Amino acid sequence: MAAGRARRLLGSLWIALLLGQPDPAGAAARSGSQSLLTGSLVRTFTPFYFLVEPTDVLSVRGASVVMNCSAYCETAPKIEWKKDGTFLNLVSDDRRQLLPDGSLLINSVVHSKHNKPDEGYYQCVATVESLGTIVSRTAKLTVAGLPRFSSQPEASSVPKGSSAILNCEVNADLAPFVRWEQDRQPVLLDERVYKLPSGALIVSNATDTDGGLYRCVIESGGTPKYSDEAELRVLPDPEEPQDLMFVRQPSSLTKLTGQSAVFPCVAVGFPVPYIRWTRNEEELITEGSGRFLLLAGGSLEISEVTEQDAGTYTCIADNGNDTIEAQAELTVQVPPEFLKRPANIYAHESMDIVFECEVTGKPTPTVKWVKNGDMVIPSDYFKIIKEHNLQVLGLVKSDEGFYQCIAENDVGNAQAGAQLIILDLAPATAGPLPSAPRDVVATLVSTRFIRLTWRTPVSDPQGDNLTYSIFYTKEGINRERVENTSRPGETQVMIQNLMPETVYVFRVVAQNKHGPGESSAPLKVATQPEVQLPGPAPNIRASATSPTSVTVTWETPLSGNGEIQNYKLYYMEKGQDTEQDVDVAGLSYTINGLKKYTEYSFRVVAYNKHGPGVSTQDVVVRTLSDVPSAPPQNLTLEVRNSKSIMLHWQPPPAGTHSGQITGYKIRYRKVSRKSDVTESIGGTQLYQLIEGLERGTEYSFRVAALTVNGTGPATDWVSAETFESDLDETRVPEVPSSLHVRPLVTSIVVSWTPPENQNIVVRGYAIGYGIGSPHAQTIKVDYKQRYYTIENLDPSSHYVITLKAFNNVGEGIPLYESAVTRPHSDTSEVDLFVINAPYTPVPDPSPMMPPVGVQASILSHDTIRITWADNSLPKNQKITDARYYTVRWKTNIPANTKYKTANATTLSYLVTGLKPNTLYEFSVMVTKGRRSSTWSMTAHGTTFELVPTSPPKDVTVVSKEGKPRTIIVNWQPPSEANGKITGYIIYYSTDVNAEIHDWVIEPVVGNRLTHQIQELTLDTPYYFKIQARNSKGMGPMSEAVQFRTPKASGSAGKGSRPVDIGADYKPPLGGSNSPHGSPTSPLDSNMLLVIIVSVGVITIVIVVIVAVFCTRRTTSHQKKKRAACKSVNGSHKYKGNSKDVKPPDLWIHHERLELKPIDKSPDPNPIMTDTPIPRNSQDITPVDNSMDSNIHQRRNSYRGHESEDSMSTLAGRRGMRPKMMMPFDSQPPQPVISAHPIHSLDNPHHHFHSGSLASPTRSYLHHQVNPWPIGTSMSHSDRANSTESVRNTPSTDTMPASSSQTCADHQDLESTTGSYLANAQEEDSAQNLPTAHVRPSHPLKSFAVPAVPPAGSAYDPALPSTPLLTQQAPAHPVHSVKTASIGTLGRTRPPMPVVVPSAPDVQETTRMLEDSESNYEPDELTKEMAHLEGLMKDLNAITTA
């Protein structure tokens, strides 16, 4: 029978194909059988639908209700009604009857508390025999309850012109039946008097006529129900203001689309308030609006509500004195609506079809399907797919009819239907039909699918033009489905979506151009049962047991036919793609070797004999934390001031945190005291300011990261030195050194460089800009920033830009610039720098922003760390893309140096391999893909100094012309100085193989490249080496250079040597050309004695005269003055700020003894010595261990300080005085080197040195300063006495001219105390000041014998002293005096300098003596006399010898 039906089906389809019936899209889409549908006997669809459907009705007890319903069809349908899903029997019902159009009439609705037979849901059902049935939407009949009041009106009063509200609350069903009466008369409602939907009455803008008795009435059928009466009194206008308040506030509403919504809002107060509304904080326009209406008292009515009306509505009452608000929500619900209705479908038996239905609504509707009035229950053949669509599989004739999609939500329901027609089958056309396919077999049988294959029919062995239909059904089920082959000649098919372990019956039918042939014999095939694999293991748990291990446990899963053989545990690091697994026999396993503090996911799969089962869900656990395994990165130090250093660093590399970083531990110490370490623990911020440090001290820092488990490894020590003094913030910063602007279309890029004076604090920069004026806008940026982009500008506009640096004192001088933004049409990206800015090409397409805040942190002599910020990154400066940075650097020495570059993927880079003490400039650019930025603003850094790594070069030694015992050493600085050369040390010896500490040392200041060495032995080979030093230490020595001094040209007397006279020597005018230091004097010994005695007598007379003036001063006053002077002078010993410390102006000659001030050369930096003393004692290689004791035994006898402000007019006109340094040598066994700081040439320090003396004496210096008015001179009386030898040579200090006092400096010397003289001033050849390096064998034998006075000089015999030399002009050359002592090289000490001064003019000398005043006490004068007598005896002894 089935075979015959299939043959009829295929035959009818073939006839329909010839008739050309079009294919319904729905069926064709599902089955792909377009040709089958077009080959059917056609029946048309029959229109059948509802004209009117019932709607929701509200009724009252005893009233009559009509539920409307009307259906259309060519054949009059039969109408029935269902109530609450059950058909009503209207034949025997005397209250309910069917009207001719199909509507339902309910007479006298019955409703009581316990009996509600008429209330419920009604549905109209229309049926046409042999066609089908349709049902309407359901409609709700609601019967109002018994009339009762939940609140009644109360007596109240209202001021005239104000609003009042009278309550009459009933349940919502009765509200439409409420009306109001005033004085038992109906109230007429209008714009001023309004009844709310709840039943309450609002009276606005009250008048006298509104007063009276009010009551509300419920008329719901039957006897009306009245409320209590309440009086409303109308009061006159109040005279005083009344508080504003709401008497009725809006409440939230839920409405359906199309309904009306009323928000009540009534406020009272005086003045009378004005009401306005907002929706979602936007002003709501009610005037002229068709849907928004302002009702009496200020209530809001919204008619025909739409979804867009939902939101928050705010009622705002304002009376000019006060404003109050009240809010309410409007929620809009939407009944179901169809977006896509089901469509009519043609189909054939065994086909699969889908009815589509798409709905919308709020809340979201649910969908159910009805076939011919009956609910469709989902099954294997009727399925709901895609939420709303109905699928019917394996159609049979009985499936024909009307299908309806019914959508329903809380606020309504709707229905839409379509007709399904099962086409009849046409007979086949004339011609041979194919026989049955042969050998139908199932070649592949699984649980859910079967593959069938067969051979072609006998009638058509080739079978190339045959197509096949495969019919199948469950055994015992009469609903057959069909599957067609995809192309002609194909003899296999895959049948899918079968049920496991189920018997199916298959048959195959071939068809050719004439129609379908015979069916094959039925083939029964049973699908495979599903293998009982293990289910998921229950209760899987994972717990971290250590920072690197996790233990996973689970329970035995359910397993069908097979015991669990083993488990496979899968685990994977979170964020990774590769999963690892391990085989486990038991119910737990511990995985080791995991990463610390890292999340891992775990799952378990059980295996039985059939294979793997169902996996468990992933469980995620994080391994325990540990101390960090790596130190923080990029530690940099920034010295803020003299007492604080800012540290910056980056966290340890990702993957090494081993936990949550809870903070950072900072350890720091002084470099000089490595054992004393201070710890500071900070938070998670990546910076720390360390304060309370010492000035000018080098500190080392290291940082370690902290977790809850402890402290991780620390960084290497990084050092920085605090400033000696803080930057100045007593004044505003200076003007920035440059300002560059680069205009774009809507922005201007501003870049600048800081002020040139780096000693003033800069807290930041203020950028002002505006069109035509820079004062429109102001932006402040950080002091580190060198770049800013002004955004949101107008195109083609002329902007003026100003830049000012500021600090806490205020803003500095502005720097102005102007720029014109580009027009909109200008898309070029050519940079325009206005002020001397280098051209920087901008790459296409749009460039990236260059890095900002580039900083160079010097780490060592060859390493600088470059850091920067990237404004195109988020605020946390985390790089998440593939961008990289290019760092370039170069030095300007030499000028043609090329840039070096390196790439970095972080915001810092360590530049190594740099040269020491070299200034480098750095800049950075960022590249991302094809886009690059311009180079950033440059940062500069100078590497630290390093000890010189090469010796001085080009060392040459030549003999000085005319001075065979003096040689000149010349050299060039080291090629690798690695810093500023602060000095040189010349070593020389006669033995090239001697130990270095046996060589003689000559220190030289760093700016000298030549040096004279005197008093060498004639005809002797010397070897010279030179060593350079800078602030970091000594460099290597040069190779030894040999030089032999020339042979002697004549003999010298005992104790003397040939006199060295420079080639440029000229005798004084009118003077003798006899050289100083000649063994023969032009004056005989008798004349010398007379001169000495005369000088002594004259000196005594002067002292007696001075003593008379001294007695006029009180002793106490003198002591105070002397103590004050002593405090001033003594406190400045060795001070670096002592500007003009001068040696004593003491002339001692065999012929005359003078004590007078001496004119000084105008040269501010006279040449004091050829052998400067080095900076400190550590800088010089010790000659011998005994030298230290000699140094410590010496004490400087000079105390004093002279202010450069103390120069009088006369002294200022003459310039400063030259100095005479008197050396005395006791000839120690080894050369003695003393070290004093070398100061700059404009800040000389003059120290006086003397050797150890034989016997203790006490010497005094009496120094008087007498200030005079402008134009007068200053007089100085200097005296020195010695009983045996001159032992002390103190200096004369000029005190400020405003101080009228006499200062006496007393110095007590022990027998071993001496003075060591050194001066570090540079030689000036233009002055030709004479120098004498004196090595006397006797304390006074080294005094040079002067020449006789010039014949033409003015000489007054009445004067107590006579000048030896008259200085004609400041630059007049004078002859030099040089003496020497005899001694071996090993016993020779470094030369002691003596500067021979020039005498003042005679007239000035006379005036100075006449104007001098002395203030001595009597006891001091007696001592002075005794010292002078001792001095005279010594001089007599010398002359007689």
Polypeptide structure, described:
This protein is mainly beta and 1441 residues long. Helix content is 8%, strand content 36%. Strands 11, 13, 14, 17, 18 and 19 form a 6-stranded mixed β-sheet that branches. Strands 21, 24, 25, 28, 29 and 32 form a 6-stranded mixed β-sheet that branches. Strands 2-10-9-5-6 form a 5-stranded mixed β-sheet, with no helix packed on it. A hairpin with a 2-residue loop joins strand 60 and strand 61. Helix 4 (1085-1110) packs antiparallel against helix 9. The longest helix is centred in the C-terminal third of the chain and has 26 residues, at 1085-1110. The termini are far apart. 35% of the residues are buried. Mean pLDDT is 74; it is low at 1-36, 829-844, 1050-1083 and 1114-1416.
Features:
single chain; 1441 residues; mainly beta; 6-stranded mixed beta sheet; 9 helices; 91 strands; 36% strand
In summary, what is this structure?
The chain contains nine helices and 91 strands. Helix content is 8%, strand content 36%.
List the helices and strands and how they pair.
Elements: H1 2-19, H2 25-31, H3 34-37, E1 48-52, E2 57-59, E3 65-67, E4 70-73, E5 78-83, E6 86-87, E7 96-98, E8 104-106, E9 120-128, E10 132-143, E11 156-159, E12 164-166, E13 178-182, E14 185-186, E15 193-195, E16 201-203, E17 212-218, E18 225-226, E19 230-235, E20 242-248, E21 253-256, E22 261-263, E23 266-270, E24 274-279, E25 282-283, E26 292-294, E27 300-302, E28 311-318, E29 323-340, E30 345-347, E31 353-355, E32 358-362, E33 366-371, E34 374-375, E35 382-385, E36 389-392, E37 401-409, E38 412-422, E39 438-445, E40 450-455, E41 467-474, E42 481-484, E43 492-495, E44 503-512, E45 515-519, E46 523-526, E47 541-546, E48 549-553, E49 566-573, E50 580-584, E51 588-591, E52 599-608, E53 611-612, E54 619-622, E55 633-639, E56 645-650, E57 663-670, E58 673-682, E59 687-690, E60 698-707, E61 710-714, E62 718-721, E63 736-743, E64 748-755, E65 764-771, E66 777-782, E67 787-790, E68 798-806, E69 815-820, E70 852-858, E71 864-869, E72 884-891, E73 900-904, E74 908-911, E75 919-928, E76 931-932, E77 939-942, ...
Parallel strand pairs: 2-10, 11-19, 21-29, 30-38
Antiparallel strand pairs: 1-4, 3-8, 5-6, 5-9, 7-8, 9-10, 12-16, 13-14, 13-17, 15-16, 17-18, 17-19, 20-23, 22-27, 24-25, 24-28, 26-27, 28-29, 29-32, 31-36, 33-34, 33-37, 35-36, 37-38, 39-40, 40-43, 41-42, 41-44, 44-45, 44-46, 47-48, 48-51, 49-50, 49-52, 52-53, 52-54, 55-56, 56-59, 57-58, 57-60, ...
Helix pairs in contact: 4-9
